[in-house]
Amino acid sequence: MAEREGVRQFKGRPILPGDVVGEALVTHLGFNAYASFYDCLSGNVDTAVCADAGNDELYGRRLDSKIICLPQTIGSTSAGAVWQRVADLGLAPKAMLFSKPIDSLAAGGLIVADVWTNVRIVTVDQLGEDFLIAVESGGRVHVGEDGTVVVRRSGEGEHEIK
Question: Which of 33, 62, 66, 132 has a C-alpha 20 to 30 A away from that of 90?
Fold first, then answer.
């Protein structure tokens, strides 16, 4: 891990590799895909606003095109179908970044979405507990193909993170 001027770097295991930059959306709670995407799955397909009232860090916030930073997922086997449908609707996040090892249901669902919809939700796990301390909602995150994640806190300057 390296640090310079409010920029921190972490190395995780790429599950679905990719090179993306975007805005972080952070939860320290488990992420329930079905509950979070419930509104867009049940007909409101204009936006992916988190409908999980049990997650006060994400509730009411847009999930699409964000880089979601989380410890782990929670929920049921329906998550696989959720990821495929969200990708089909064009409402998927850019990336899912896990501080802990990803569970098999989340990994399977994200991989199925990637294969069946050709929408890659870049996924990296095992980033460590310090990752969730360093990243904050609204901050900029760069995810590299090799699982390197560079975090810039939202209050830091507008210089590029590479």
Answer: 132
